[in-house]
Amino acid sequence: MLRKSLIFTLIFMFCRTAVSYSLIEEDKELLDDNFYLKYLFWAACIVFTGVSRHLIRSYDIGISYSIVCIFVGILWGVAALYNPWVYKITKVAQSNTIVFSLGRLYVPTIIFTTAFSIDTYIFYKCLAQILIISGPAALLCVLLTSAMAELIQDKLTFVQCLMFGVISISIYPMDVLGYLKESNVHAKYIISLLHGETLIATVLSSHLYYCLFRFEEGWIAKWYQFVMSFARFTLGFPLGYILGKLGIHLMKFSFNSTPQLMLLTTAACYAGYFFSRWIATAEILTTVVIGVMMASERHALPEETQQALQSQWKLLSCAFNGIIFITLGARAPSLFKDNMYFKHYILIFVTYLVANISRFLSLVVFLPILKRLGYELTFQHIIICAWCGLKNPLTLVAASDLAGYIPNKTEQTTWIFLHILGLYVLMLLINGTFLPVLLRTLGFAEISTTRQVNMNNCLKYIYESRTRMITILKMDRFLSDANWPLVVSTTILKHPYKKTNVTDDQNMDENEEEADMFLGYRFTYCPDCQKHIPNEPSPKEFREMTKEARRRVLKLKKTIYSRQYENALLTRDGVRTLHQAVEIALDTEEAKIEVEGLLKMFDRENNVCKYLRNHLQTILQTKTDAHVPPRNKFYLFCYRMVNHMLYLLFVACTVSFNIALLTVDSVPNLMDIMGQLEVACHFLAFFLYFLDFWMRLFSVSHTSVWKVGFPSFFKSFWSILVFVLMLLNLLLNIFMVTLIETVGTQTLHYILEIVTVVVASFRVLEIFARIKYFSWFLKIPTIGLKHADMRVNAHRAFAYELGKNYISGEEEILENLHRIVDNEKIRMDLKNTAEEERHTLSRKLALAQKTRPVVASTVKTKAATRAVLNSMKDDIHELKVSGWVDDNEYNKLLKSIAERYKYVSTMNFIESSAPKLIFQEVPYMANDNVLINFLWSNIATRKYDPGDIVIDEGEEANGIYILVTGLLLVQYIPNETVLNLLKETGSLPVIDYLCISSMEQSNYEYFIPGNTIGELSTLTKRSYDGRITADTHSEAFFLSADTIKRAIQMDPDPVNGLECRIWKSIGFKMAIELMMRVPAYRTLTHDKIQYFVERAFVPNLSNYKIFVVNEMMHDIILLEGFVIDYNTRDIYKAPCYIPRAVQKLVLPKSSLVTVQTTLETKLMIVPAKDYNEYDIMFSVEEVATLVDTTNTKCLHHLIKDKLLLTSGDSRHKSLKMAVANELKKSKTKSTESVKSKITFVSSGTLKDSKNVFDT
Known about the structure:
about 1250 residues, alpha+beta, four-stranded antiparallel β-sheet, about 5% strand, disordered N terminus, sodium, transmembrane, Cation/H_exchanger_TM, sodium transport
């Protein structure tokens, strides 16, 4: 309310200031006691506009509030003709000056509001189509409308008919855009097309109207005056660009301050408008450019700030609309009462028909061109664009000004105002009201059965949740006596696709064709088996189901991209581009994003940058002719002099001195001392040129001047030019001295001026030829090439960012596909498409990283830095909520975070990491310098050509590979043996980076630098179940199995040692996928689950027979092997999530399991809050059943030893090795084969062997 009150106050201040300043002499009599009634009139207009707009929206009345305001104004004007008190109040509306002053404030408000709310991305994409519609098509519409005006009103001149046509082409379809958003038409595209036409057509209309108005007044009469007027008008674009850049720069300083942004946009709007009006009379063009440029920066603002700014400008527009509509409506009766008759009112309908037909024909004529530019337009789209061409309220202001400011032509101008007002009202009444009917007729308003069924299912889910919530609240002892029937009736929702509210499931399905459909299936009841059997959908239903499934996927993608932007993994431009791609795909029949455009971005290059890069590279690669130093001493002296920097500077000064002489006076007076001095200076310049000629000639003479010097000197074009200029200079000096008496002064002046211009021009070229020898000038091509490369790298970095986040989105879609699409055939089709796009983009990203590693390094480093800062920002907020920091400290911490964000945005291109740094940053290295140095000293480098096999199927990896450069391809084809082991014993397929959903399907994946492979095969000593080949020239670090074994012995911690960390790295991705399927985690985002799983650990359970679950464990995930619930005898096979109800897990080494296997069970344990992994394992060891081994330390003592080792120095290294040996002795192996079926032995027949540890 405070913000709205401030805006209303600003409106009144603007209006009062403008009107008081603009009063002319004949309006000074208004400054009496009744003059301030105009403020009461304006306040009443604003209040009535707000009330009428609220009532129309509340009761869903199908008319615009603009019509209501105009009719109320007309009624008020009629009453003013008969009532003196009403006339006294309305007198402000009768003043031409006040209406004109209001128009000055109203025009920039409407223009800036329209420009500031535009979707700039689509606007730029379809700018060519907008220019065609707003240019040639609009001019054709002007001619047709003008011809109609000349036919039905013979008193209008040709210029006045053109003025009528020009005024009527400006459109303002904002009142009907809501209908388009709810329809199946290409909403975003059509809305942006109409939005852009509103701006461009208004700019064109305003300038043409200005020219014709000045021509009618007599200010413009000649053709060149029109040309100069257009030239001044074009100055509005650079002026708007400069002011827009200034506004964008100031918006960055007010990023988080909504009031400052409101004042800034207001100042930018009105300052740009009036400043451009003063400078170039191109105020509307300048305002449009400023608004569009600031709209592009608006997307970078927070969502709440964007909504506040748009609400501010909508409020301003609504207030000014109310004042203008009621004011012009009240003015109309006084203008029409004397000059207009009944037939003029009837002709308004003719004008309406001709205006619509002219617009439709203009669009149809240019439809073949429009189809080939931008997005594809159909004939139905042209009909919608023609029907939505509601007239701009600025046309009312222009027609009102025309009626009040052209003397002696009252009847003609009043006729124009009448027809413009009638055309505006009829457009709103007929076109605006019947647009839903047109959309239904064209088939754009009908909702598919699949979408209706989907909405029914959603409402069923909402009502089921409501029922559960009411049941829970009834058990609350404070709410048990609430009026629950009233609660139920109050929480009834309105069906989005129906006229009435939906009360319950029975009413929702009653008398509906889709009542038998649930989740996209139609069921038939079988009386024999007494079950509902799903029917196969018809081809039409299947197409609708497929389209709806794709739409769901696209909507989920949009949510994913927004979340990536919130997590700072995606920049503002990136999320806007991806959102726009989703919006375009939603408006197409296929409902599919075209990835080809993204792939082309990796190879696309600006033509200017490409031309500059090629030519600059040619310049840098061109070698200058190196002359051999002469043998002669004098020639060698000349050679050294010519190639010295001071000599080059001396020659450049000589050339500059000669140019100054040539431009001072063409014909010196030899009788004057100054003329003689000037001639002497000319001869001095010639002497210096002559000396320079011989010095350069001697410098290239290796042995002889005539045999070597002259041929070498005249090889160069610049040397020939210098010789010719020297001769011209000599001839010019001789001509001035000897022929000055024989040739006439006028002829001499003419000849000398021509020669002077020629010589001076060539001397300027000579200066450039001399400059190329300076060292700083030689750096210019290098700087230009570097700048061009930076532009190319910036474009490739943007493409790389889009591709990386698109792949991340596809991976998340694949993980959630089973939840959003239930039809198996459709799901498989979507999955195959997503996999194909993901693999294509992965390969493209890898190739881009190989060709331009700096691009990939920059994008990854910036994204990682922003993600870390974003996580730190969330932690700071959590500290504030928890009470650890106060408001002052919280603001200081946020300021520090903001400074880091700003620094990241200013970071230039980052060089790719060194190979050793890539090795050190492998996740399971854990910053252990001793371990890293040991592994680095035992590393081997392997190189592969395209097509080389890195690991073949059936071979053991025998080590871990760390890819440094290149691209590797892994192909996985599951066989029956692998799948049987997976189903029977939980033995994972030995393949890297494999999803759970892809274990039973053929799959292939690309590995990029930084990825590691071979961990699972090395730890389990099982053969590889896939094939890894080199797709490009690649290089990888190799750590042998023996090296890994010795490294594990160096870090034998059974909770967080090297082996445990490697297993965590193997199971991290599988754990996230499993957690997302757990109902308790479905409300969490992918990033939250990642953050949650990162706390997990994978302990060494080789000594455990029975594992006891306690309250310190939040979740348990089975990564490898199988376990059995001790109480329920349920068998869990990897990979799976262990329910929280399980209390004891029987491991394969227990005597309760009859199967002996070499497969070691691996559990990933997520600790509960405020517990760490060592506390958990210590408590588990106290109650768990372990394998009976001798000479084994308990975990309690191992933890003490670990703490001692971590807190001590090198003296404890021997103790660390002793602990490693103790743990090594505790491992046991089984050699019996795995049986096909796991049997559980009753606890009554076997006794558990227990091991007691001294603690």
